[in-house]
Amino acid sequence: MNHAYVDGSFDDGAETGQAGRSGFGIVLITPGQLPQHLYGRMEAGDNNAAELRAVTEALRHAPTGEALTVHTDNLSVLSAIRRGSRSIRQHEEAVRVREEAEARQIELHLARASRERRHMQTAHALANDARLERSSTAPPSPHAEVNLSHAPWRDSAVVTLRRSGERVSAEVPREPDDPLARSVRALLVAVQLASPGETLIVSHASKLAVALWQNPKRALLGAAQEHLMAAREHIKLHNIQLFFERIDGER
Questions:
Q1: Gene3D superfamilies, per this entry (predicted)?
Q2: CA gap 226, 74 in Å, rounded
Q3: Which of 28, 73, 155, 226 has the most crowded Cβ, counting Cβ within 10 A?
């Protein structure tokens, strides 16, 4: 099923004198593809109306004739789409949502999502950038999303790399004689999975892994530093780039 994470951003004019200036942000996810970021600026009566417009735009960009689940943390938006709203502006936007779904033959599902979810945070940032007319940086292409799972109670770390049309996972077992911490080793495995010319967007790297990657000389002399330097030479040789997001405290 296709999924869209949506958010709206509204300026009430109290501080800027620009009441009504709004923006919407969307993270659209379709099977086999990397997330698509969509955003735009608009004039709206309130934040709920801006977020309802985000739902409409998600429907316009989603595949025709396929089901779509829209995720939002806004209960008023969910209620307006399901039952209408006493607010004229919100009611009009909610009607537009239902009409768009019907016109494009999309079975619309609604779900409440926590603001803390990664894609919700991205949608929120996109909406704010649109309202403030700031440029939102789209994910570089070609790129891959990497998730590092290294919970302390596990005997191994798991590296999951997702690029368009492909998902690759690798298990990193705990080796007693490994000179690198398990979370650092997981990052190096992710680097080895990258394709030449690819950008890796890495989530949940540990603070230690990020610190040592950015400055390998912090590592103890010997094998640990050699492994780090070899990995950095590998990405330089193959034109691979790394970006870190959602850094974890686990070492």
A1: Ribonuclease H-like superfamily/Ribonuclease H
A2: 50
A3: 28
* Tens-digit pLDDT profile for residues 188-235: 999 999 989 888 888 888 888 888 898 887 766 788 888 999 999 999
Six-digit token string for 186: 């997981």
Count of Cβ atoms closer than 10 Å to residue 67 Cβ: 13
Report the predicted TM-score, pTM, of the whole model to 2 decimal places: 0.60
Element (H, E) at 131: helix 118-131
Q: Which two tokens stand for residue 17?
A: 């004198």
What structural domains does the chain harbor?
2-131 (3.30.420.10), 143-245 (3.30.420.10)
Which residues, other chains included, contact 61 with Cβ-Cβ below 8 Å and sequence gap of 6+? 26, 28, 36, 38
* Residue 132 near residue 25, CB atoms below 8 Å: no
* DSSP summary character for residue 159: E
Distance CA 138, CA 36 (A): 9
Closest listed residue to residue 106, CA positions, set 73, 141, 131, 81: 81
Report d(CA 200, CA 244) in Å as an integer. Answer: 8
pLDDT, one tens digit per residue, over 23-57 is 889 999 998 777 888 888 877 768 888 899 999 99
